[in-house]
Amino acid sequence: MDPTLLLGSLFAIVVAGALALDLGVVHRQAHAVRAGEAVRWTALWVAIAAAMGAGILLVRGPEDAVLYATGYVVEYSLSIDNVFVFGVVFAAFGIPRHLQHRVLFWGVIGALAMRLVMILLGTALIARFDWLLALFGAFLLATGLRFLFRRHDAEAHPERSRLVRLARSHLRVSAALDGQRFLVRTSAGMAATPLLLALVAVEASDLVFAIDSIPAVFGITSDPFLVLTSNAAAILGLRSLYFLLADATVRFQRLSTGLAAVLLFIGAKLVLGPWVHVDPLASLLVVLSILGLSVVASIVAPPDRHEAPGIGDMRRPMDPG
Fold this sequence. Notes:
This protein is mainly α. Helix content is 70%, strand content 2%. It is globular and about 65 Å long.
């Protein structure tokens, strides 16, 4: 068997096993995820991502391992904004903390399927039209500027997204939650619970963020194996990252400026690619340096509380009992 195919198969088996353990054993009974559990799951997903990187190093060499690591770091960092949107979604639909894990679990499964399609489509288009990389670069430059100058106090209303409005217009919606169920039987027939609408909003938010993040990873490498595995490794850690940040006392609100700088760097690298070559290791060091400085700035000079709401500021329904 081809070593790359074998490595990908082992990665898929390990991920499937961890997901089955997560939903079928650890969260078979719904409960609120506390900080300690979130730390353990975050460590597990990071360890799986690191093991995949080590496998790529052994099978494909150091250059591909660095490209994978850079893609993972960029994707994981860009996912921070998506994590904060999760808090807005749960507040908007009144989802208590002990039910949030179920929404995010199926949200991650949907995100993986969605990104697989987008990555395969992007790979096919780039193979046929190589000028698309420069277009991706221009798009990332525009996105980076939008990140840099966006209003932090702008209100987000994921419950008003087109996808959620479409679901409301075509589905019978129950006003009340019914445990972990997405659908319930009523006297008028089957109805969606607010849990299903929250899932739709989570998927809609991931689609929006994928439009930004996938071109960024293509700016690092156009190898579909590296793009897909780095994306998958980062997305799988989103749920535990959300619960970890939900209980964090320090919120890295300066990170958005760092993310803007990362997008601007990758966009410029793509646009100038035909004339300027940037070594993969140098790219990784630049990305890590930018993110590290933004985290330090968040701690040393945190913004005023009114500048950007953190997850801890979201109003959450009280847990039962």
